[in-house]
Specification:
71% of the residues lie in helices and 2% in strands. It is an all-alpha fold and 211 residues long. The chain has one domain (3-92, 122-210). A two-stranded parallel ribbon has the order 1-2. The protein is globular and about 55 Å long. The two termini are 23 Å apart. Keywords: Membrane, Plasmid, Transmembrane, Transmembrane helix. This is Integral membrane protein. The chain crosses the membrane at residues 6-26, 38-58, 70-91, 134-157, 186-209.
Length: 211
């Protein structure tokens, strides 16, 4: 096997683990006897992570045809951060046990639930400060690492030729993710999350069908 084939195999394993973790987290939510207060935003971001993982994995094959040793670490970091983002997209089964009250808008703890097993509140999870800072912060880090790896690959292949359109898109995406990480306003998260979903679906379909 050539060097690009070894690297492609490693990145494929990381993507496979990320999607497996995402599927396992969803399985825990729909498991019988699981008490869940459903909310569409965490599920939408889980779908976003699915399409993002497919898109990054598919695009990596094009870049791996060029010199690989120099931008191996930026790309490895990109996929490792992608794995972490997939792992953080949905809550673990025991997340509710350590969740402080009042961090999510509209979340309440009733007297009737005291002394019983509490439900897993997806809305409280999504809007919690810890989740927002880690999840969207990791996505920004993955975006930056991917941009660095892409630019290095292009510089080695055809001389430095930074794509202004690509850098503007990534800059806009980083600003969007940063906004979501800093605020817990529902009216901010809802439209930006839907916009991200539509963009990722369209770009992933075009990437796969066009490739």
């Amino acid at each position: 096997m050539s060097q690009p084939e070894y690297i492609a195999a490693l990145l494929s394993i990381i993507v496979g683990l990320a999607l497996t973790d995402l599927a396992r987290s969803f399985r825990e939510l729909v498991r019988p006897q699981r008490k869940v207060n459903w909310h569409w935003l965490p599920l939408l971001w889980a779908a976003n992570m699915f399409f993002l993982a497919i898109q990054l994995w598919w695009n990596s094959f094009t870049l791996l045809t060029e010199a690989t040793s120099t931008f191996f670490f930026p790309f490895l970091l990109t996929f490792l951060l992608l794995y972490l983002a997939c792992a953080f997209a949905l809550p673990d089964p025991g997340w509710r046990k350590s969740q402080p009250r009042g961090d999510a808008p509209g979340s309440k703890v009733s007297i009737e639930t005291l002394g019983t097993e509490p439900s897993l509140d997806l809305k409280a999870f999504h809007f919690s400060k810890a989740h927002r800072r880690w999840f969207f912060g990791i996505l920004i880090g993955s975006l930056v690492a991917g941009q660095v790896g892409t630019q290095v690959a292009r510089a080695l292949a055809e001389g430095f030729s930074a794509s202004r359109v690509e850098m503007l898109l990534n800059g806009g995406a980083a600003a969007l993710l940063g906004t979501l990480g800093l605020t817990n306003r529902w009216w901010v998260h809802a439209p930006l999350s839907v916009l991200s979903f539509l963009f990722l679906v369209r770009s992933t379909v075009l990437t796969v069908l066009g490739g």
